[in-house]
Write a structure and sequence with these properties.
With 384 residues, the protein is an alpha+beta fold. Helix content is 34%, strand content 22%.
Length: 384
Amino acid sequence: MAAVITATGLFTPEQSISNDELVASYNAWAERWNADNAEAIASGEATAKELSSSGFVEKASGIKARYVVDKDGVLDIDRMTPRVPKRSNEEISILAEMSVAACRDALERAGKTPADVDAVIVACSNLQRAYPAVAIEVQDALGVDGWGFDMNVACSSATFGIQAAADMISAGHARAIIVVNPEICSAHLNFRDRDSHFIFGDVATAILLESSDAPRNGHGAWEILGMKLKTKFSNNIRNNFGFLNRAEQDDPAAGQTEFASAGATDRLFVQQGRKVFKDVVPLVSDMILSHMQEIGISRADLKRMWLHQANLNMNLFIAKNVLGRPAEDNESPVILDEYANTSSAGSIIAFHLHSEDFKPGDIGLICSFGAGYSAGTVFVRRTV
């Protein structure tokens, strides 16, 4: 049995922060920091914080805005991290709540119900707890009679999840699996770092995969022509804020907010952007081209690439390397201007929003890349 993608779903938080709003918050904090540390700056013991601008953010990344689960907490210069009220163990977690919304959207689009699904895979960069698995909570909330598990391959989690689900379906272990990518990246971002405070946004996406012989109620599907995964260890993108960090604090009673605001920013998201660009662009370009050759797809066959939405310039270079020329807007659509980098969900948002015009036989590429380094390519062809 072959696996096909039959639908995707999207949950978008209600709140959005523009570049102007984010920069105003950062600059207000930086100016206050500079004033509070004026003597140390004058003596050379400290370096003044450089101010930012919306123009700098857009030029560096292509990002114009981002959706977040909490706007006020991010923009509050005394806090600069989202406020996510603690929920009791009897309440649904925020990651599961976002996941369920995205899953229901995908099921509705496919004309299916939770009874048609056998498993849930939560594949994302930022899990909020060690266990029980968020996927099992999502499974319970949806009413899926089956199983679930969590997986993390950073920004490539969605494509790795697609391959895991497709392999299980092909092996006969399930009829249908939902891969869901809930990302609250704003909770792991250092909003006091001029070079990265603008990068991430929050969102959740879902991908429904089914056996190719499953009834589809008149809905089309996406045949998977080939999948390929690659990892190569690098410290150039790193996030150390895991569940073990609490045990490493000087004050074990401190919560995440106090820990983050105390200056332990080395455990939040950090990257060496220029090194990442230099390493990842050729790695991903070569991976796509070699995969195309392996499965017999030419440049002329490829109608569209739904690339990971990390940085506009990276996508422009990768698309040009693959096509042998600059890509047209509809050949490599961009959503990071509105959503920013949403980690594992980025390529799925692009696919979700920019695939309705495909006709039977049209071929496209879902591609992810990120920390690890990790990368995944999933070539798909539209069916009737």
